[in-house]
Amino acid sequence: MTMTERKKNFYQNLIISDEDKIRAESALKSKGVEKHIQIKEKLLTWSENSNIEYAKIASTYRYDKRIRKVLFKFISYLEEFYRAVILDNYINRLKQKFWINEVRLKLKEYSNNLNDALEHIDFSSLLIQCQKLPKQKQELCLFPKSKYLKENSIALKELRNAVMHNKFLLLYRGFEECYVNGVDAGKSANLKANILNLIQFLPAEVGKKCLKEVNECKEDRNGENDTAWDLPQQIIISLNA
Question: pTM value?
Fold first, then answer.
């Protein structure tokens, strides 16, 4: 099927105003036809009829982007926080038995510059290194008190990768299962559970701010030239304080 045919497929069963057709054409060009079709098909599964409003599709896309921006900010905070704990405590004490192999290699590569070494290891290695620190220093990282720290760390790493690689989070199916309060049975691999997992890794006050900003993503912030904000209730992620 050609791209022209795929675009026609997107417009089928679509309720859209003439004004929004111009916006839709721009969005299809910049954000992709296939992604819009995927969103449309997902929303149609919840619809009581065979038609769907374009405003719901556009709002879903914008909602996902807002969530990604919030998560990017707080994941970046966490990476900087972990690097700071290590750097501040070991900048002048480089000969340590607890360095993982990745850190040892980077220290060698960057002439024993710990700052450069830490900035050139991936997030997974950074998490592992923090968990290998002596207990007193490890406590500075404020890891959640859970017997599932390993599993939740893996889930956090996957959420981080999805956000940093700009995945469409509301449709993403690559999240890992994590153990958190606030979801059914206390464990899940859905987006809500993974956001709650990120929050439990953050310092308490920072976590509260993250929760608040995620909840605010659903609010109507429309300008006069925007497509109407019409966010389907089924996709809204509501987090309890």
Answer: 0.94
